[in-house]
Amino acid sequence: MTSRKPILFFVLPFGLLFAAFYLAPIGYAIKQSLYKVTRTGTFGPAHEVFGGLEQYQRVFQNGPFWESVGRVLLFGVVQVPVMLGLALLLALLLDSGLVRGKRFFRLAFFVPYAIPGVVAAIMWGFLYSPNLSPFTAVTSNWNLLSADLVLWAMANVVTWVYVGYNMLIIYSALLAIPQEVYEAATIDGAGPWRTAWSIKIPLVMPAIVLTTVFSIIGTLQLLAEPQVFRTFSSAVSSTYTPNLTVYSTSSIPNFNLAAAFSVVLALATFVLSFTFLKFTSRGGDK
Amino acid sequence: MGIMGICTFYFLVPIWWLFVGATKSRGDFSGTAPLWFADFHLGQNLSELFAYRDGVFLRWMANSVLYTGGAALLGTLLAAMCGYALAKYRFPGRELIFNLVLGGVLVPATALALPLFLIFSELEATNTFWSVFLPSLVNPFGVYLARIYATASVPEELLEAARLDGSGEVRTFFKISTRLMFPALVTIFLFHFVAVWNNFLLPLIMLGNERLFPVTLGLYTWNGQVNQLPELRMLVLTGALVSIVPLVVAFLLLQRFWRSGLGAGSVK
């Protein structure tokens, strides 16, 4: 048994910061969300009083908020599978031995990940603008910044940034598969497609699950892209995504309601990713 | 091969476009072919960018490097220490801490930004360097990864041997274990670096003073003013190009580390 001191030395610095900047804000947000601001008379001084679940009632009655939740869910249902499908396909191609110049491709696909979401959104915002875009064949026929298409224009930005990152995670998992597994498959007469489908994909499932969870979390948190696109397109409102709602509510300022939005959003994210993890790990046991 | 070609085009053309765009004068930018060079104007664009409003852009770059580099270095060390202890020692509360950390991975950082702002404003500490820097130090996913890597790469026998030689636990960690975990630590560092570099909501909520902005927030505010001040457009483009250089260089230099380390977290 090691003495306590070194363990405290290792755990305490992170532990204290985690408590101060993760646990405390969660607690504080919950507390704030249970209060409300009242005024004596119309112009009297404001003070905070306990409001119970009143803010949550407002959250649940807030139409634009739930519209924004629906919007990011729709976004996620389409964008996450497309992005991860592409990432998986590219990882399998890199791993298949069919492709020469692996180093180059791996790097080329990964470079967009080095570009911050805000900067990527600014770049694509220009690329979508009809009078500046190099893709005039596309932008003259479709207005990518219109109300109908702007959500998918943003989905493209997110996909562009994150495919390479997800590809690398899956690719590293593929590299970790022992060679003997393939030898057995070759002896059984399995071709490259068959090997990919029946051996590789099941073996890298944990990596795919991990990337899916991170993508779900990321989707619900969409902020930088819509916030930037507000300058390019009037179709993006101040409540376009849940996080934008939180931000615009807090700049009113209505901190109590914004805190309630934050709590609901964090809880929804947590539940969704946790459920997905549980669901997939149960599937794996069978 | 066809798919690879199309994808390369898709991933690289926007960056090429940005590079070409940043080398043009304002007139050429909207008047000439977007994907090829006109008069080479990059030098003038850069000096204009660096001179604009007393060089505020360079200040933003320096801020970003400080926020991100500092937080990622220190944060990686703290995460490594904590993950290492969780992997190598049994102590009361170990499971609780690990579960809290795991829960922390699933709690989105953006959900914390607003309550952090409220807490910092009670302490009258918003709009300071520390209000962005301190929260950026905490990286639960780093602890999770460090625990996995420590289990995989630091053998018990080695620690026992070090103990028999009379080396203290802390000394063993810094002298032996961190070396064994080094590729993993680089991976954690890179993840952390990118996460902080990308963090937008926290500085957006926390900071009002332009001199404290990270470069992403700075470019965002300029981009929002392009309609009133059209001359900012070339500065935004050139600034965007300059802002992505450090991270691309870091990725290229640290390639061999992140390649080997990146997958380990998901395989186990």
UniProtKB/TrEMBL annotation, chain A:
CDD domains: TM_PBP2. The keyword Nucleotide-binding does not apply. Residues 69-276 form the ABC transmembrane type-1 domain. InterPro entries: MetI-like, MetI-like_sf, UgpAE/MalFG_permease. GO terms for biological process: transmembrane transport. The chain crosses the membrane at residues 7-30, 72-95, 107-129, 149-171, 203-224, 257-277. Keywords: Cell membrane, Membrane, Sugar transport, Transmembrane, Transmembrane helix, Transport. Signal peptide: none annotated. SUPFAM superfamilies: MetI-like (SSF161098). GO terms for cellular component: plasma membrane. Pfam families: BPD_transp_1 (PF00528). Its main location: membrane. It is found in: Cell membrane. It is a multi-pass membrane protein. Belongs to the binding-protein-dependent transport system permease family. This is Multiple sugar transport system permease protein.
UniProtKB/TrEMBL annotation, chain B:
Its main location: membrane. One of its GO terms (biological process) is transmembrane transport. The chain crosses the membrane at residues 65-87, 96-120, 132-150, 180-200, 232-254. One of its GO terms (cellular component) is plasma membrane. The keyword Disulfide bond does not apply. Keywords: Cell membrane, Membrane, Sugar transport, Transmembrane, Transmembrane helix, Transport. CDD domains: TM_PBP2. It holds the Pfam family BPD_transp_1. InterPro entries: MetI-like, MetI-like_sf. It is found in: Cell membrane. Residues 61-253 form the ABC transmembrane type-1 domain. It is a multi-pass membrane protein. Belongs to the binding-protein-dependent transport system permease family. This is Multiple sugar transport system permease protein. It comes from Actinoplanes regularis.
